[in-house]
Design brief:
Elements (H helix, E strand, L loop, with lengths): L5 H21 L3 H24 L5 H10 L1 H21 L19 H12 L1 H22 L11 H6 L2 H4 L18
Helix pairs in contact: 1-2
Protein name: NADH-quinone oxidoreductase subunit J
Pfam families: Oxidored_q3
Keywords: Cell membrane, Membrane, NAD, Quinone, Transmembrane, Transmembrane helix
Amino acid sequence: MTSRNPVVAVLWLIFAFCNGSGLMILLGAEFLAMMLIVIYVGAVAVLFLFVVMMLDIKFAEVQGELKKNLSIASIIAVIMFADLILIILLGTKSINISNVAFTTPANISNTLAIGKVLYTDFVLPFQAAGLILFVAMIACIALTLRPSTAVKRQNINQQLKRNKDSGMNVTKLGVKQGVQEIQYD
């Protein structure tokens, strides 16, 4: 949020999503972690990055700011690398979470447990959220749709009023008379 460069802000957003997915993997929710990576990083953040890249950004200014903040960035990189090594070294220890209310049994996969909870206990809020998102999508399309005068549109009433007398004009052409000179009713 404090980044002045929008491209860097989107990259920080992608980094935050990856951190969130790493936390979900540590908590044992592998399916949610993959969905976070696939949906948010794969679609939303890339879309943001595409829109931001279409903006006119002065990359000389970005490189100047990068050189100014290189020492801070290297310190943060060393801290994150040390944190990653600490997580890997402590990853062999098991954490007892047997008293948590929503633990899944050992014979059920994470995806099956999420499906059972969503479609049994929380089916009404899940369907209501889907309906709200659907109405919001239709509202966004309706608000941004502008009728264009350059596009020819059908007039169904005019088409239904036509018959063979009004729909076809039979004329005899002269020897040196072209189609452009025919007068239509």
